[in-house]
What we know:
By secondary structure, the protein is of the alpha/beta class. The chain contains 12 helices and 13 strands. Helix 1 links the parallel strand 1 (10-15) and strand 2. The longest helix has 29 residues, at 336-364. The radius of gyration is 20 Å and the shape is globular.
Amino acid sequence: MSLLPPEAVEFIGFVAPRHTSEIHPAHGPAIDRDYLKLLAQAHEWGGFDRVLVAFHSTTPDALLLATQVASVTERLGLMIAHRTGFTAPTVAARQFATLDQLTGGRVAIHVISGGDDRELAQDGDHLTKDQRYARTGEFLDVVRQSWTATAPFDYAGRYYRVERGFSEVKPVDAISVYFGGASQAALAVAGRHADTYALWGETHAQVAELIGRVREASAAHGRAPRFSLSVRPILAETEARAWQRAEDILAQTRAVRAAKGLGSVATPQNEGSRRLLAAAASGPRHDKRLFTAIAAETGAAGNSTALVGTPEQVADALLDYHALGVRTFLIRGFDPLEDAIQYGRALLPAFRAALERRGATAEAA
């Protein structure tokens, strides 16, 4: 897939190698091939553009899982999380370009530097956060040269030194780079390299403020990235039932954490989680439908805020973020398979219909 036009809308889902979420404790083998296949195909059937394959220091390898997802789908794009620092950038560039060729151009990468020193230590990485982002910047310098260079190149940085680097395999077109992180160190790299900048499900005011900062950082490099929002839609046939389901999910989350012996959450080290907790501190509901109580309960460990309502109401809430400049929506549910099917049946069509109506109204005005 080539880089998307600025105004194109994209929906990204989420696949995992087994059934698990905040309300479904992981059990059994780390990889359930049948479940992974079913979840991937549910997203393809539902009209998603891509699926995120996540990375964590203790979970199955994201690149290999993405290869499996590609083998059981026909057109579904892949957004493969890659943590820099553990694979040489020249090697990583060839790996992603190879998979892009084998899948007919379905690869994108979500570049992560790591926001928790404790998790990074599990893989033997003890750099500071600022050092990790600086290393990521160099990593992407080298990766992009590997994808585009027509002759061997040299690169001399603090973290990487390459002599006569070259890749015979190139992407089918261009591999899109998704990038997140709200610290100043992160924004410096995002401004230089992000094709799509990824935000979590924050309030309208927070999203507008952060988009402004990213645009400023990108303008210094003559770039204009797209923007993505990650959120957890909680749907039901009526608004009242949707909010009741949200409260039920919150109660289940608390019960699962209690059963695991998890007490109060530690103060997160990453800026993104801190921003979510700042919103949650002023109340559980914001704007039209943003529900932050689950983020507060879990310490905002990742994508943990929800939009609550009927499919049409949540579609309308997504349109509010669209008006702020968001063009990619990364959505996943607390019941991963069931919710992915429901999104495909109801939410994505409702959003696309509402966007078309809004566009027609604007043209008529």
